[in-house]
Amino acid sequence: MRSERRSPASRLRSAVLPTLAAGTLAFLHIPFLVILLYCFTTEDRSYAFPPPGYTLKWFGVAAGREDLWRALVLSVEVALSATAMALVLGTLAALAVYRRPFFGRESISFLLLLPIALPGIVTGIAMRSAFGQVGIPFGFWTIVVGHATFCIVVVYNNAISRLRRSSPSLIEASMDLGADTFQTFRHVILPNLGSALVAGGMLAFALSFDEIIVTTFTAGTGQETLPIWIYGQLMRPRDRPVTNVVAVFVVLITFVPILLAHRLGQREG
């Protein structure tokens, strides 16, 4: 059988498109590879290439920093709390918008999605002004509320997308069979939303864990999450390798939930 001859334009696309894809991946990930490389350098100030030598001592130095561990614990606590708040509020908002049509429903849906599109500095300034006017002291919960504003968007978007792909007849059948609202939610709606909420929760955790701008405006005195700690260490040249180690650690922590959420989305698709 004679092989089908491809046109010059087709051959050009076959050569150019993979090259462009490889170039895009390199553009996105080479900075991370540079940070990873200089986690192992023996020189604490220089970014000369190639590194003068390699060592694992900076991992031990990072593990011995008590201020680092305090920042890590605070980041995890804030991310878990913001994710829990987002799961509750985002799910309830999705159910309210999906349940039945009403005047202004699309406007409300747009407003629920808007915070993810706003610049972080706008959200931070708005939250700081609001807390200041009410007289709420800045601390752990102001950070959580600030993070929840954009985490809710992720959960809401996942939940409303799943509800729109679900059959309304399931809820109607449950109610016709005598189930009350809570039983219908527990046995019909929640299992149907399960994987969407898990994916949304993992994405919300990743977003909250590495947030710095909103945190800067909503944190109390002396409170440092891990991203703020990293930013502060950039002003200390002798701590650059330690900062690189922590930055790689942050990337790995956020990579895992994003990967799992992506896999869940592929499975559902």
Question: Which helices and strands, and how do they pair?
Answer:
Elements: H1 8-37, H2 57-63, H3 66-99, H4 105-113, H5 120-134, H6 140-165, H7 168-176, H8 181-209, H9 213-218, H10 226-233, H11 240-268
Helix pairs in contact: 2-11, 3-6, 3-8, 3-10, 6-8, 7-8, 8-11, 10-11
CATH architecture field: Orthogonal Bundle
How much strand content do the residues show? under 5%
Given the helix and strand composition, which structural class is it? Answer: mainly alpha
The ordered H/E elements are HHHHHHHHHHH
3D structure, described in words:
This protein is mainly alpha-helical and 269 residues long. The protein contains eleven helices and no strands. Helix 3 packs across helix 10 (226-233), helix 8 runs antiparallel to helix 11 (240-268) and helix 10 runs antiparallel to helix 11 (240-268). The longest helix is centred in the N-terminal third of the chain and has 34 residues, at 66-99. The chain is globular, with a radius of gyration of 24 Å. The chain starts with 7 loop residues before the first helix and ends with a helix.
